[in-house]
Amino acid sequence: MQLRVRVPATVANLGPGFDCLALALDLANEFVIDTEAEPGVEVAGEGHGELPEDGTNLVFRSITYLAGELGGGLPAFRLSCTNGIPVQRGLGSSASAVVGGILLADRLLGADLSPERLLEVAVDLEGHPDNVAACLYGGLALVYLSVAGWRAEALDPSPALRPVVLIPEAERLPTEDARRVLPRSLPFADAAFNAGRSALAVLALTTRPELLAEALEDRLHQSYRLPLIPGARALFEDLRGRGFAVCLAGSGPSLMAFEQDGRTVQDLGPGWRVLRPRIDRRGATVGGKE
C-alpha cells in the first residue's frame, strides 16, 4: 500500500490574532508511506541534511503516536518526505509534519476519525491550534478552546488577498525562544486594543481587505519578538512606513505582507527569499493506492 498526503504551509497569528487565527498557503510538504518498500525515513527538499531520517522524525513520530492512541498495529513502511516549506521560518513546517503524520496513520489504520478528533490529536502533538487547524481545513482558520476541547471554524478568505512571504536567509527564530520573550501580563489597554484589532482582522481578511493595514496592528507579541530578528524588524518597519499591511509570520523570522492597489514589494536583494503563494483553500489532502 502507498499513501500520499499533501499539507500546506500556514501563517499563524496574523498580527493581532495571537494563537487564534491562521491562513493556509499554497506552499506544501508531501509525505508518502509505502508498506512494500524497504523500511526507513528519507527527507528531500527543505530541511534535507537537517531534519532526522530515523524514528525521531516528527512525521514518523506523529504516525506512531496516533497508532498508539488507537491501539492499532502498524505494518513496516518507508516514509518519504518532500518538503517545500522552509524550516524554522514561521511557516508551520512542524504543524505540517504533525498533520501529515496523523492523517497518514488515520488512513492506514482505517480509523476515519472526525475532523474534531483529528484537530485535538494534532494540538496535543504540536501545541499550536491555529497552525494545525489551517493545515487541516485550509483557507482562514479561527480556533477557540471550548468546554469540549479545541474547535475551529473555517472561513473563506477574500479573493482579493495577495500575500507575499518574505523569508530572511540569515535569521532563524525557534518558537521556544519567541515564546520566552513574551510578558506574563499586559496593560488592560493593550488587551482591549488587540481584541478590537482581532475582530477587525477577521473582517479585513474575508470581506474588507482595504482595512488590512490597520487590522494587522498588534500589541501582544510582535513588538517583543521583532528585536530578536533585526533584519526582519528593519524590513517590517519599512513596509509599515510605506503603508503595506504586514505581520510576523507566526513567531517569525519571516514576514507576510499583502500587496494591494497595484503596489508590490520590491526585490529585496541577496539574503531574502520572496514568495508569492496563492491561498490554499483545500487544506491537507490524502490519496493513495492499495
Mind explaining what this structure looks like?
The chain has 290 residues and is an alpha+beta fold. The protein has 2 domains: 2-156, Ribosomal Protein S5, domain 2; 163-275, 2-Layer Sandwich (Alpha-Beta Plaits). Helix content is 33%, strand content 27%. It has helices at residues 58-70, 93-109, 115-126, 129-137, 175-180, 188-206, 212-215, 222-225, 230-241; strands spanning 2-13, 17-34, 40-45, 78-83, 140-146, 149-155, 163-168, 245-248, 255-258, 272-275, 285-289. The strands form 2 sheets. Strands 1, 2, 3, 4, 5, 6 and 11 form a 7-stranded mixed beta sheet that branches. A 4-stranded antiparallel beta sheet has the order 8-9-7-10. The longest helix is centred in the last third of the chain and has 19 residues, at 188-206.
| Domains, number | 2
- Total beta strand runs: 11
Low-pLDDT windows of residues: none
**CATH-defined fold name of the largest domain:** Ribosomal Protein S5, domain 2
What is the gist of this entry?
The protein is of the alpha+beta class. The protein is 33% helix and 27% strand.
List the helices and strands and how they pair.
Blueprint: E1 2-13, E2 17-34, E3 40-45, H1 58-70, E4 78-83, H2 93-109, H3 115-126, H4 129-137, E5 140-146, E6 149-155, E7 163-168, H5 175-180, H6 188-206, H7 212-215, H8 222-225, H9 230-241, E8 245-248, E9 255-258, E10 272-275, E11 285-289
Parallel strand pairs: 3-4
Antiparallel strand pairs: 1-2, 1-11, 2-4, 2-5, 5-6, 7-9, 7-10, 8-9
Helix pairs in contact: 1-2, 2-3, 2-4, 3-4
